[in-house]
Amino acid sequence: MSEVDASDRYVIGVDFGTLSGRALVVRVRDGAELGTAVHEYRRGVIETALPDGGPALPPDWALQDPDDYRDVLRHAVPAALAEAGVDPSRVVGIGTDFTACTVLPTLADGTPLCEIPQLRDRPHAWVKLWKHHAAQPHADRINALAEERGEPWLGRYGGKISAEWQFAKGLQILEEDPEVYRRAERFIEAADWIVWQLCGAETRNVCTAGYKGIRQDGRYPSPDYLAALDPGFADFVTKLDGPLLPLGARAGTLSARAAAWTGLPEGIAVAAGNVDAHVTAASAQALRPGRLVAIMGTSTCHVLNGTHPAEVPGMCGVVDGGISPGAWGFEAGQSGVGDIFGWFVRHAAPAGFDSHERLTEAAAAQPVGAHGLVALDWWNGNRSLLVNHDLSGMIVGLTLATRPPDVYRALLEATAYGTRMIVEAFGQAGVPVDDLVVAGGLTSNRLLMQIYADVTNRPLSIIGSAQGPALGSAIHAAVAAGAYPTIHEASAAMGRIDEAVYRPVPENVRAYDALYAEYRALHDHFGRGANDVMLRLRAIRNAAVDAAADRAAATLEVVG
């Protein structure tokens, strides 16, 4: 941590992740990180049943409690200030970023529906986390109808809207709990809701509106299209629409209530909302076209600025100003990366190999291809290029000689192959990727980073901060506070990057080319309709789970 100077100004960046929120105190003049604190969400990810004895949840649900987000402001921000030793009166702004698409239904004043007592036991009243994938059938209908009608916005999203995005989740609410849909006067990204909590003003940011809300060329999908999906859905855009702000804009000033939560001065600048991945491009000094940022954690989000719009099959979207003003921002992603590695360590690695460190050490000792395996990285579905969250994972080549480090390395490699698929799709659409910058918690795994450099055959740079999203939010806060005129200038002064830390090894590149060819063959066979066994297995599983739940409910009714 750097020394505090009484004449300096500071900003706060707050990064709301999947399991916790982190606050970071940053010096405006050079981006020095003075203090940080993490607050774990009390409820975490709600996947099996609502809290406090609430009803059980079906498969593929993932919810959260919005009060966990307020707790980050109440606990992490004051703790970060205390660690930094910074006088709160020297703080001039606060910026935030969030997972996305993480959305919640609220009243017109921003009250979450799950905080209304009579709706607390209704699952659709809660926050739907980004990895809530139960809306896949609704996404399928959205896509089929848009393709049938030739909706002009569909190509901007690679030809498919994800089950993770706003419209699929909103349609699921309407059709599974019409009362909650009717009570929802607003349907808002958590990225914008937390800004509303900070400054008391409802705003929407261009990033989530474009990537997650299908807002293109100044408008959302038409009421006519929405009514064709379901007559009750025609008003959905009225729940989404709000004052739209560019990234780095001032959404308002810190309210007295939020000042009491955070210990910050009332009236400081509050930056417009943003997404954890997109905001990281600024902290990694990666705003120039051709430099792809991979934010690698539980999942991976890939963001890239381009000079012109292009339709890239299977992409999450391209949005004017979606990463930084003045450029077309492209997004892609993988729904499971660190989560896959964690699954193996927790549930499949035997004693003696049940740690990432031990598995990595053993896996690094073997030559490329020595394990004889290839895996598909769909443990949490496929976000790009296939945009299908009903797909599942696969490992091919297992024998009685296969050992845990072999499987672990194959899983690491599978995620790198998925990233190469994305890189190649960009290039084929005329959006070149020159090099990669990696941010996020997985940068500490040197084997994984070298695998990515070898598989993609591109130099790999590493963000110079362990808190990329929080630093990015602080950079945007500095712009919102007027300390820098543009995000580009703030990024140049406050961001940091270690260039070309990992370079491709030619013999590894050649070996991985052969393995990647096998991955691609499996990818296309099981992901593009030649064999839908994964989808059939998912349907069989869901039917079995539903039948068991019905039997349990019937038993309880008889007992009662």
Automatic annotation (TrEMBL):
Domain Carbohydrate kinase FGGY C-terminal: 293-481
Domain Carbohydrate kinase FGGY N-terminal: residue ranges: 10-281
Keywords: Arabinose catabolism, ATP-binding, Carbohydrate metabolism, Kinase, Nucleotide-binding, Transferase
Keyword Methyltransferase recorded: no
InterPro entries given in the database record: ATPase_NBD (IPR043129), Carb_kinase_FGGY (IPR000577), Carb_kinase_FGGY_CS (IPR018483), FGGY_C (IPR018485), FGGY_N (IPR018484), Ribulokinase (IPR005929)
Annotated TM spans: none
Pathway: Carbohydrate degradation; L-arabinose degradation via L-ribulose; D-xylulose 5-phosphate from L-arabinose (bacterial route): step 2/3
GO molecular function, one term: ribulokinase activity
EC numbers, comma separated: 2.7.1.16
Top class in the EC scheme: transferase
DNA damage recorded as keyword: no
Catalyzed chemical reaction(s): L-ribulose + ATP = L-ribulose 5-phosphate + ADP + H(+); D-ribulose + ATP = D-ribulose 5-phosphate + ADP + H(+)
Similarity section: Belongs to the ribulokinase family.
NCBIfam families the record matches: L-ribulokinase, PRK04123.1
Protein name according to UniProt: Ribulokinase
Species in which this protein is naturally found: Micromonospora aurantiaca
Gene name for this UniProt entry: araB
